[in-house]
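Tokens for chain A. Residues wanted.
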């Protein structure tokens, strides 16, 4: 059966990478049932044929106007679809969408009329911001890392930069690979515009965003990069909780040690692109 990927090897490579990452999410226990979602900007791989493809279903409203997305193309995980299934059959568990000229709706163009994730507004708001700022990031990942979600149930870690400080102090690599830390969004209804707006504010100044009692959102140059950002912070959370399980509050690196790493490695204080 011919699909949109049949004559587009570069696009197929991107979709194959998405499938690979979704397998990791399932293996890590971060994607129970249909939990989590992915959106990747694939506009650079679009051609005139894709631009002319008829919509498989009538245009669907996003819920807000996103002017930078006019005519852009995205791969999006389907609502109700399982990551473990997407890992095997990405085009049956996700779809390619095209943003309409009104910048407030989208059309599904391939391969099947798989309705995108209910949290698409959050993802597209982030994608609009990334394009607006000239960022090189093209992928957005929402998943449910067990240890980070667990820490979001503790009030102490929802206040200020306490969670970032603790995670940085667990292992030097966390600070090196997530130098902007983790932003916190207080609990909001999944899929809501309020959640999208709050996430957008936090991602401007952090590597990863943690939705209280829900999950994380990360952006990256590709979906593997977004996964790595989340994985680094989750590793630090695992170390913290493992130390706690031994009966003591972990000591962690001192503030002086953290500052030394920041200075020696000249770590960025803003998102690099």
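Reply:
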């Amino acid at each position: 059966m011919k699909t949109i990927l049949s004559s587009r090897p570069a696009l197929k490579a991107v979709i194959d990478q998405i499938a690979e990452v979704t397998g990791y999410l399932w293996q890590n226990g971060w994607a129970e049932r249909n939990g989590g979602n992915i959106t990747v900007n694939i506009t650079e791989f679009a051609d005139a044929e894709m631009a002319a493809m008829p919509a498989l279903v009538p245009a669907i409203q996003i819920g807000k106007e996103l002017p930078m997305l006019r005519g852009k193309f995205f791969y999006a995980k389907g609502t109700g679809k399982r990551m473990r299934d997407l890992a095997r059959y990405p085009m049956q568990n996700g779809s390619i969408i095209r943003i309409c000229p009104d910048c407030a709706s989208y059309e599904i163009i391939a391969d099947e009329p798989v309705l995108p994730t209910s949290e698409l507004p959050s993802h597209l708001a982030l994608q609009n911001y990334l394009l607006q700022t000239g960022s090189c990031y093209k992928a957005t990942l929402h998943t449910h890392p067990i240890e980070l979600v667990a820490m979001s149930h503790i009030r102490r870690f929802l206040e200020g930069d306490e969670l970032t400080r603790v995670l940085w102090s667990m292992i030097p690599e966390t600070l090196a690979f997530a130098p902007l830390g983790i932003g916190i969004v207080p609990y909001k209804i999944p899929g809501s515009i309020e959640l999208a707006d709050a996430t957008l504010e936090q991602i401007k100044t952090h590597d990863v965003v943690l939705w209280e009692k829900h999950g994380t959102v990360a952006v990256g140059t590709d979906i593997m990069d977004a996964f790595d950002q989340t994985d680094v912070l989750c590793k630090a959370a695992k170390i913290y909780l493992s130390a706690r399980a031994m009966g003591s509050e972990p000591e962690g690196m001192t503030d002086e040690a953290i500052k030394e790493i920041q200075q020696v490695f000249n770590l960025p204080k803003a998102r690099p692109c």
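The two ends are 39 Å apart (CA to CA). The chain has one domain: 9-264.
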